[in-house]
Amino acid sequence: MAGSDLDREIGLEQGYVDGLYAEVDAMRAVAAARGAEGDPVWRAEVARLDAAEEGLCFGRLDMDDGRRVYVGRLGLFRGEEPLLVDWRAPVAQVFYTATAAAPQGVRRRRRITTRGRVVIALDDELVSGDGDDGLVGEAALLAAVTAERTGRMHDVVATLRAEQDRIIRHESSGLLVVQGGPGTGKTVVALHRVAYLLYTRAHLRVRGVLVVGPSRIFLDYIGQVLPGLGEHSVVTTTIADLWPGVEAPRAEPSETAELKGRAVMAERLADAVRSRVRVPDGPVEVDFEGQVLRLDDGACVRAVRKARRTGLPHNQARLAFQSEIVDVLADRLIEDMEAVVLTDSGEAIDGGSADGRLSEADLRALAAAGVVLGHDEDDGPRSLLDETDRASLRDSLLADKGVQAALDGVWPPLTPEQVVSDLIGAPVDDWSAADVPLLDEAAALIGQGGDRAVFGHVVVDEAQELSEMAWRMLMRRCPTKSMTVVGDLAQTGSPAGASSWDRVLRPHMQDRWQLAQLTVNYRTPVEIMAAAADLLAAHHPTTPPPQSVRSTGEAPWRIRTTRADLPRVIADLAAAHTEGQLAVIAPDVHIGSLAAALSLPPRPDLTDKVVLLTTDQAKGLEFDSVLIADPGTILGEPLGHNDLYVAMTRTTRRLGIVHPGPPPAELSAVRELHP
Q: What's the CA angle centered on 603, arms 597 and 608, to 5 degrees?
């Protein structure tokens, strides 16, 4: 298209976009006025309209039947006429899925790029029909992929591909696993699927959606995506943060974390809770208001069995046990008291104390139960306690400290922290992330955590890292098992993580889950993916690498140094870096010395031009350039080959590797530079 023609087309689209913004401004004014009156629904509407401000309209479809359909972040209508179609609406799906082989009624697809409210570029693709307008259909996508990183992920609603859109709109109402290699867009697919589900399934706005990520750094990175799509009510968290009120900062050795993550820990916790109920070998003496009541062991056994048959959690079953025992004690007291026949003045003529009256202990017990002795019109023997008195006596027994101590000796109350601490031998309040699922399991066993949030849908990113116990924790938060689970088994870094989706999901889902695959790598250039593919083939020979769609012409390189010089070499390379954002990825052992050499804070700031990360922290992130420090030490960790694969595939442009001593065999083919 000639320059003058392009300018004319941009001008026409600008006029249409101006009209759309005028509609939004009018709607915002109304919503703001209503919201100022305190209506939360209208305040939410203002937030929705504000979120659509950037990139309100990003596409146009020219259909074979002559219609024009504009696609954007929300739907706008003038009467019955659609001015802008929400990208999640069925009619907009062909914007992402129409191809020359299957045009679906689309003649031309146009992507509209705006900055603020100004149209700055158009990208046309002829889908069907004759002719060629000379524009490249992938231009918008490649521009988004090659743009410099900012330390924050943005939505890609304007550049979603057919493979991604198919998963976003997947009609599964159960658990969907999205397996995909590096750069295939697993995270953006999962987040855009959340927006799609909230649009198409209204009940989720009431029940809520939970997004679980591998780290707080990752959640900061993706934090702008859903608000940018107009969704502000989604809860984001990590596994470690799912247990309210518990801090879990302690680092855990990988082998210990792996043991704590095994499903067998659920059985051990259940056994530990059950063992806290201690049935006495003989009678139990219970002190109540100066009387000693004897409770035979048979009564305790029967009460324990009856309480356990309720199937209630420990602390709730404890109440059933207590009620049963108190009934036994109350009946025994009442039998003794009812054996005494009183005159109208309270004198005992049938039992009682030696002087013909109720004993002091009897009187105290009656007083404790709220029984007041008085005259009765009936001159003959009379019943001492009615049903109200009996209930008062049971309440008094239950509230008595001596009775409570005796009952707690058999069936004590428990807290999750107490159960887990006793089992693993760790002091309370000194927790690691691996302990959090154990605390949640213990809470379920004892019946604490009734305020645990329950969600209509759960998204799990980097799901391959979750332990079996963490899966149990998540399943409790989504009883419907409606989940979108995204990950890559070739990137599992935790020994407690998954080597098979079926192995971790079958205990909860049997075979009622579906698998979708992402196969195209939009992030990692061909040159870098070739090197990473060698590493993948060495350790996952049956796993094909995702197909990269672009080349930068820049091959990865490596430099040999010494361990002592490693911080200086990394600092020099970082100082020479001028283009885009650089990530230095290193094993934990080097983080302190590298942070000092690079003058970086202990906690990474993803908006800095240079970011220092461990391999765990780098999961799910992407940068313009990556420097890997000491790959040999990374490989020496359990599943270190997966961690190195993650590190090598975080970059969109350039990769450098600095290794003390000889290179690991997996990297020997990478081009060596000699400084």
A: 70
- The 10s digit of each residue's pLDDT in 6-39 is 899 999 999 999 999 999 999 999 999 988 888 8
Q: How many CB atoms lie within 10 A of CB 324?
A: 17
* Paired sense of beta strands 651-660 and 671-673, if any: unpaired
Find the Cα–Cα–Cα–Cα dihedral 599, 601, 605, 611, rounded to 10°: 40
User: Which 3 state secondary structure label does DSSP give 165?
Assistant: helix
pTM of the model: 0.85
Closest CA to 86 of 69, 102, 103, 74: 74
Q: Which residues of the chain have pLDDT under 70?
A: 1-3, 129-151, 155, 337-385, 450-451, 675
| Tens of pLDDT, residues 467-525 | 999 999 999 999 999 999 999 999 999 999 999 999 999 999 999 999 999 999 999 99
Helix/strand/coil (H/E/C) assignment for every residue in 286-322: EEECCEEEEECHHHHHHHHHHHHHCCCCHHHHHHHHH
Q: Tell me how many degrees the CA angle 188-189-192 measures, rounded to the nearest 5.
A: 80
What is the DSSP track for 560-601? EE-TTTHHHHHHHHHHH--SS-EEEE--HHHHHHHHHHHT--
Q: Which of 157, 165, 159, 161 is nearest to 144 (CA)?
A: 159
3-state secondary structure of 65: coil
Instruction: Report whether 258 contacts 432 (CB < 8 A).
Output: no
Of 473, 483, 474, give the one whose Cα is nearest residue 512. 483
Q: How far is CA 670 from the centre of its chain?
A: 37
